[in-house]
Design brief:
Number of strands: 9
GO molecular function: alpha-1,6-mannosyltransferase activity
Number of helices: 12
Helix content: 40-55%
Radius of gyration: 28 Å
Structural class: alpha/beta
Shape: globular
Distance between the termini: 67 Å
Keywords: Glycosyltransferase, Transferase
Oligomer: single chain
Family: Belongs to the glycosyltransferase 34 family.
Number of domains: 1
Pfam families: Glyco_transf_34 (PF05637)
Protein name: Alpha-1,6-mannosyltransferase subunit
Strand order of the largest sheet: 2-1-3-6-5-7
């Protein structure tokens, strides 16, 4: 970088001894210029490193930190049943200043195509992110589930740095019981964009938390790839998630597996819970997986006693 200097006049500083001053000043200016360039370069590099080190979106002032995403099947369940689910989510959101996003399975028929309708949860979450682009976290919870401990904010229960790092399961098989692919042992809170649990056999996406950002969009695009939807996995999107968690290290490197009861406890009538995955009083969430497609089970009947228990809790909290 060069700096323009005034032309030297023969009438100024006529003595040879005085000619040292412009040289000295030029050296000073050059030093200052180089120092300024170094500072600007350092600031630029720091800003680039900062922007690339985390792809998550900060929560701006005046926006909610958490959006609860619930996908409702209005074609197969009565308004009476679904209204109980909605009331449960609305109570929890109101307590903690969160936002609800209710979607309907039928809204995503075109996106899902010929694949099982359970795949609709992926475009529903993408829809929620597009509708609330400035929110920091998206908490997907199946419509066959209740939040049973409404006094627990998601932040202190799961998202705070020390809490999340203490819960993260490290160096364990991704797909139980004996997957050769294991979770990373060095994960820290700022590495984590996806928080999910396992049950006895699979990664269990009926309840999970996804941090907004570039990773979220990448993850949802990979999961919803047409190849996986057309592959005829026995458990559709569940086995699709099992696959990408094991064979896409970019995704596994940003994922925390946490104990099942932290986020996704199963009811006593649900098969497949992990060894410590069945609901106990005080747990955050109870889910009823399989209540809609297992012979001899009924979602409405299974939900009712827990819904009444939840109502009593809301009156005492």
């Amino acid at each position: 970088m060069q700096f323009a200097l005034p032309p030297r006049s023969p009438h100024l500083l006529p003595h040879a001894r005085s000619s040292r001053l412009p040289i000295y000043r030029r050296k000073q200016l050059k030093t200052v210029a180089l120092f300024g360039i170094a500072i600007l370069s350092l600031l630029f590099i720091c800003s680039r490193l900062s922007s690339s080190s985390s792809t998550s979106v900060a929560t701006p002032t005046g926006t909610t930190g958490v959006v609860i995403v619930t996908l409702l099947d209005r074609e197969n369940f009565s308004d009476s049943y679904l209204n109980k689910i909605v009331a449960n989510r609305e109570d929890y959101a109101k307590r903690h200043g969160y936002t609800n996003f209710f979607a309907t399975v039928s809204d995503y028929k075109d996106a899902v195509g010929d694949a099982p309708k359970s795949w609709a949860l992926v475009p529903a979450i993408r829809h929620a992110i597009a509708s609330h682009p400035r929110s920091a976290y998206f908490f997907h919870l199946s419509s066959h589930a209740l939040i049973m401990n409404p006094s627990k904010p998601l932040k202190s229960h799961l998202l705070e740095k020390s809490r999340l790092e203490s819960l993260t399961l490290k160096d364990v098989p991704v797909v139980p019981p004996d997957s050769i692919i294991k979770t990373f042992s060095h994960l820290k809170e700022n590495d984590i964009d996806l928080i999910v649990t396992q049950d006895k056999e699979d990664v269990s996406p009926g309840s999970f938390v996804l941090k907004n950002g570039e990773f979220a969009r990448f993850f949802l695009d990979v999961w919803f790839d047409p190849l996986f939807r057309s592959y005829n996995f026995a458990k559709a999107e569940i086995h699709g998630l099992d696959h990408i968690m094991q064979w896409h290290p970019t995704i596994l490197a940003r994922t925390a597996l946490v104990p099942q009861r932290t986020l996704n406890a199963y009811s006593k009538d649900s098969t497949g819970a992990s060894s410590d995955g069945t609901y106990q009083d005080g747990d955050f969430v109870i889910r009823f997986p399989g209540c809609d497609d297992t012979k001899g089970r009924d979602c409405v009947q299974e939900l009712e006693p827990y819904y009444k228990l939840w109502l009593r809790k809301t009156k005492t909290d």
